[in-house]
Amino acid sequence: MGILFTKRCVLCGKLLSTADDGQTAMLCRACAAEIRNSYRCPGHVQVKGADEAAAALYYTGAVKSAMHRLKFRHMPHYADWFAAQTAPLLAARLDEWKPDLVTFAPIGRLHLYQRGYNQAELLARAIAQLLALPCAPTLRKRNFAPKQSAQQSAEARWVNADRSFLPRKNTDLTGKSVIFVDDIITTGATAAAAVHLLRQMGAARVYVLAPTKVPRG
Question: What b-and-e string marks burial along 21-30, b requiring 16 or more CB atoms within 10 Å of the CB?
Answer without folding.
Answer: ebeebbbbbe
